[in-house]
Amino acid sequence: MNREIARVLATGMVFSMAAGLVGCGSSESGSEAVSEKTKETTEQIVLHILENDTAKSEGYLQELLDAFNAAYAEKGIQAVDANMDEYTDLAANGPYGYGPDVLYQANDKLMTYAEDKHILPLTIEDFACYEYVPEEAWDAFKMTLDGKEYYCGVPVNIQEPMLFYRTDMLPEDWEEVWDKDGNQKPDFLENWNDLYAFSQYLRETDTSANQDGQYGFMASLNNLYLSSQFIFSYGGYVFGETEDGTLNAEDIGFAAGNTAAGMSALKQMAGLMNEGCIDDTITLNRYEKLADGSYFCAVSTPDTYSLFLEKLSLHYEAEGLTEEEAKTKAKENLQMVELPSCMPANGDLSQKSEEMNEADWVDTVVMGGVNGYGISSYTKYREASVEFVNFATGYEMIKTRADMLGIAPTRSDVAKECGDTTDMIFNSLADGRIYLMPSIKAVDQIWVPTQTVMGDIAKDAFREKKGESAKYTSKENFQAAMETVNKNIYDAIYTLSE
Questions:
Q1: Cα angle: 350, vertex 352, 357; to 5 degrees
Q2: Continuous H helices in 73-118
Q3: Of 14, 37, 267, 290, which one's alpha carbon is 20 to 30 angstroms from that of 307?
Q4: Strand, coil or helix: what is 352?
């Protein structure tokens, strides 16, 4: 057992705080805790691990379980798939013994559980990954209680919406037509007006029978996380802060700044998509549609890279390449980059970029998050769960996860070997271009109200095409819609919960 884990077991992983922070999550007395430790050394321990669906479908979870079980076989500890939906409700299932021992989730979800004492606090200095993970990543799992700071998760990877595209789908004349500044990077990967213009060009030159086979930028515009740039780039925010720097859920900011302009841009972009943008359709078919060339680019997160790669490889195989040739070609052509860094300040995507000056742009700001492991307050095997998390966040397993899934790892030693994606994301975070998901329970209430309104605004583009009356025709209309979002979130947090 390494030094870090020995120290973890010696200190009990700050579980002396249980009465204060996790009192409602565990009813063990001191004698029961001692008997648990004895049990952990005399009986076969089975840990139930909840991972995300991508890790399961791509085989990473099985790799992790096999490696851990081989390393801990002689210690009587076994880890198995919790065999639950990745978004299982720990608060509902945990108290009845149905929840996992260890769960991998985004920071907002883990910290929602932690706020209600469903997740254990951790002594993060005792984990082997501690010195390799940036402070910003640890802070995503930090909470303050009675003036004290606690950490309830161990970071694995950082997320933000990324743009996926194929280099072999770039127009042959892109350097002459779509690189006005001559920097060897297509303009439509640098600013949203050129991305809009290129998407419009693809629609106008679509020669398919129903003109539904050639799209540019594609995303589910009802999805706050994937389409957050239309809010946060224009001064919107989720929750404000109190004087001591803690989040204030009464201060809801989706109508702040110039988000009305952002919603106008969202509606414009919807007009160059199909109706799949008003719901989850594009989120579900983006891998296949990018692979077959129907979509030039689509929005997703770094940890889905392997899914794009898999579909693209199959596409090349169908064209006649061998499996190995197809994989090689897919890796060469599949690109994952950050979203274009400039948006029009007035929200008008149809302006020609060459006619705009620096003051006409605002920085693109997107919502991001940190995924990591937490330990359930209801586990019978706290110390064994700690060992599993330490193993899963060690160099070898994070490197394996990065190789298999294409994540942006928070471990700096692994990140250096995986290219510059992680550095790029952390730089964007430091520059204020990534708005981290708030790590408080109230964030649960933001998704449905934003999804409803953003989807309805996107649908407006299709109302007009069908000859129906548009609902959002002025800045006042967009502003009123975002104020409705604020009100519905407030009611969900404070009024409807009473």
A1: 120
A2: 90-93, 107-115
A3: 267
A4: coil
Element (H, E) at 247: strand 247-253
The domains located in the chain, with CATH, are: 45-152+368-431 (3.40.190.10), 162-365+442-497 (3.40.190.10)
Give one word for 409, left, alpha or beta, with left for phi > 0 and alpha for psi -120 to 50: beta
174 token code pair: 């892109």
Strand 434-436 and strand 366-375: the pairing is parallel
Tokens read off for 148: 């004290």
Residues 194 and 350: their CA atoms lie apart, in Å, by: 9
Decide if 384 contacts 40 (C-beta within 8 A). yes
Residue 361 pairs in a beta bridge with 344
Residues in CB range of 154: below 8 A, 6 or more apart? 122, 124, 127, 129, 141, 372, 373, 374, 389, 393
Work out the average pLDDT over 306-318: 97
pLDDT at residue 485 greater than cutoff 70 = yes
| Residue 238 token pair | 């989720």
pLDDT the model gives residue 25: 34
Q: What percent of the chain has pLDDT over 70?
A: 91
Cβ partners under 8 Å of residue 235, min gap 6: 256, 257, 258, 259
Angle (CA) 464 364 347, round 5°: 35
Please write the tens of the pLDDT for every residue from 352-364.
999 999 999 999 9
Taking alpha carbons only, the member of 257, 269, 280 closest to residue 340 is 269
